[in-house]
Amino acid sequence: MIVYDNAATPGWRIPVAKPARTGCTPPASFEGAAAIPMILAANANAQGSHVGEWRHRDAWDRPASNLQNAIRLARIAEEGKFDLLFLADGNGVRNLDKPDLFAATSPSDRPAVFEPVTLLSALAMVTEHIGLVATTTTTYDEPFAVARRFASLDHISGGRAGWNLVTTSNPGDALNFSKEAHAPREDRYARAGEFAEIVKGLWDSWADDAFPQDKASGRFLDPSRVHALNHKGAHFAVAGPLNAPRPVQGHPVIFSAGQSEMGKELSAQHADCVFAIEGTIERARALYADLKGRLPRHGRTADSLKILSGVTIFAAETAAEADALFQELEDLVSPAVGLDYLSKMIGHRMAGYPLDGPMPDLEDEHVGPTGIGKAILGVARAEGLTVRQTYKRILPQMAGNLFKGSALQVADQMEEWYRTQACDGFMIAAPVVPTGLERFIRLVVPELRRRGLFRHEYEGRTLRDNLGLPRPANRFFAPGGAA
């Protein structure tokens, strides 16, 4: 077990004693070890998953752009044998006119966050096993730059890099890239598909044995083992080859999060993992079946795509303690903050609607976010929620799902989602950082292990190994030296 005694990251331990079982026995059909371990990813947002978190007494002080906090969070997650850390990102700042509302803004829109690949390169130096996944947009970046960035991170980390492919949800980002307006959704997804194809082609520029670097013969590289992409398409012209060796994983793991029709099709064609947010287990099962069902059309098998459900977890020794923490955080949020966050998530300004009136029926399309927004509106419509009830519903989990209770209750919920094909694992956000993640690892992880659902040690050395994903073959070079 790692103990940290650096002055900048005070010492701490995660006890591994198993909690006593008191009731909450899982259904008989759930017994036995899982054939494939449940995937656990940690949301690396240093300000937690609740809008009121940063004001809580247990939250980190001064979390903005704090490297030591990021290091500690990565080590906590690795000590818990999590598969990966995930960093959201964007290219703009929102709410400058409302400084009290920055906590209601997602990490991708905040004014004091690290560029994610830079941060993950630093975290690669202080971790050994955990995957490192960063967000980069296909709308305001270039394929060659992204391919090089993530190939470099994969080499630096020894094969632990992942790229979260996004098309950008904030229309205001366009103004930072010499654009007068955000591109229409159809154009963004068309560009994203071509972008992903180029990036994968660039990662295959060099055969795995292209760089012998033999001092005795003086042969640094084999010029017969390189392929120039020479791509010319609707959106890009890229000659190649990439000026980086083939990544350790062949291709860094590609993640996506789109739940619109175009987003799901993009994921089915290019993604290895999908982050999904659905308000109920029934909706999650339907999405799971939908995404897996698309794969054969692209020559893929069901196990080639892993689906992670976004969830905020309030875990405590007892359900009453979890309820108390939940209420403490709720009490730190004003209606103004709640309305602002709700407006962002559904892409529609809500300030003019009565707090205790019904949520409006908003079916109009817009260029901002829609997948999560539609899920929120669907839950509000199905349950007849008011505006106030809707923002109170989403604030504790930043629009994701919410599991709350004792370790056994939380484990029961996770097991049901996992066993009944609502997901292959979870993107876990802690309501308060770092104590929420520490508490989850101390209380819930041992219970998941007792049920045969989660690992005791890492299975392999790369992120692909641990996720159960094969290393992609090079499309231009066959094994054993043939082109």
TrEMBL record:
UniProt keyword annotations, A-Z: Flavoprotein, FMN, Monooxygenase, Oxidoreductase
InterPro entries linked to this entry: Diverse_substr_monoxygenases, Luciferase-like_dom, Luciferase-like_sf, NTA_MOA
Coiled-coil annotated residue ranges, if any: none
Superkingdom per UniProt: Bacteria
Domain Luciferase-like intervals: 58-330
One Pfam short name: Bac_luciferase
Similarity comment text for this entry: Belongs to the NtaA/SnaA/DszA monooxygenase family.
NCBIfam families linked to this entry: FMN_nitrolo
Protein name: LLM class flavin-dependent oxidoreductase
Source organism of this protein record: Belnapia mucosa
